[in-house]
Amino acid sequence: MDKPETDLPSNKRGPEKISFDASKHIEFVPPSKTYTMEDLGFPADTGVSSVAVSEPFALFSEEAIHQMRAEIFSKEVWKYCKYSSNLSQCQLRGIAPDYAPFIYDVWKSQDTLAIISKIAGVELVPAMDFEIANINISMQSEEQKQEALAAVAEKASRDADEGVAGCPWEDDRPIVDWHTDSYPFVCVTMLSDCSKMVGGETALRTGDGGLKKVRGPQMGYAVVLQGRYIEHQALRALGTTERISMVTSFRPKSASIRDDTVLTTVRPISNLAELYFQYSEYRLEMLEERIRSKLKEMRDHKRAKRAFKTSAMKQFIFEQEQFLNIMNREMVAEDLVIPGFCDDSHLISADLRAQQNKRARIG
């Protein structure tokens, strides 16, 4: 698998291990605003909820963030869980529960899930344990930080003199390039001090092809995004030596709600045996629940001496066939998966596909 050049920083030291306690470690303050899919120019029935994205909101205490950082900066995590791809240079994946029990307990907590679900407008559960959690890492030295700030200032001055109004500088080197998520919802939590950060927003492609930026969260703050249906990128941040965010993926808890999960952006940066097992497990559990529910409905109708509804049963069978076909499509044979390479099938817009393909050719 492709491993990023970023190494475990030798100066990272965390607190002693503690257990998650919702009463101590959750410091939730509701977001000032949430935007609907219609607000962003999408049809109201796009996705599994009317909610598109929230403004940043306070979620975790300082102690909780320090414990999370201690877990992600362990030698075992950086040895066994480090990945890179054409979308992101350094990611830590599959860290819980083995290497990050605190983080695992955070996202399995009913208190945490109730908060995320309320903001999302639909009851959610973690997509699967392997996705607790994806850590996006961007790090540089103090010298590199100052060089980047100087380069941006020089470019801004030159463009102002020449009357140039081009693409924003962040698009040249995003932390995570344009993509849609593999899972319906994500919660992005900031694990870095952003008090001196310039940039670092999340850029969203709207339904009419426009651009909306959602400001980056502060340390301990989070953003909820229905990222399966909205193209977005994490913009580069200046004025800091690190930007570390934790992305936890979610799906609807109810088996009766459609599951649009794909594995496009996660397949090339995963332990495929574990990813495919957990994907198959939860999808088959959904199928089992749907079949049991349908069987109960049939029997109840029979006891009530109602006629058997052939057309309804055929529709149910068709929907489950489609469900299984999608599973089969997403579990690409291991020898056909290119580690570290995500194709452009996750993108919706033709111009973003062309842009990503151009970068791939140049790279």
Could you state the order of secondary-structure elements as H and E? Answer: HEEEHHEEHHEEHEEEEEEEEEHHH
Note poorly predicted spans.
164-170
Beta content comes to 15-25%
Principal-axis shape equals globular
Residue-averaged pLDDT, rounded? Answer: 88
Fold and architecture overview:
The protein is α+β, with helices and mostly antiparallel strands and about 375 residues long. It has nine helices and 16 strands. It has helices spanning about 20-25, 60-70, 75-80, 100-110, 110-120, 140-160, 270-305, 310-330, 350-360; strands spanning about 35, 50-55, 55-60, 80-85, 90, 125, 135-140, 175-180, 185-190, 200, 200-205, 210-215, 220-225, 230-235, 235-240, 240-250. The strands form four sheets. Strands 3, 4, 5, 6, 7, 9, 13 and 16 form an eight-stranded antiparallel β-sheet that branches. Helix 7 packs antiparallel against helix 8 (about 310-330). The protein is globular. Mean pLDDT is about 90; it is low at about 165-170.
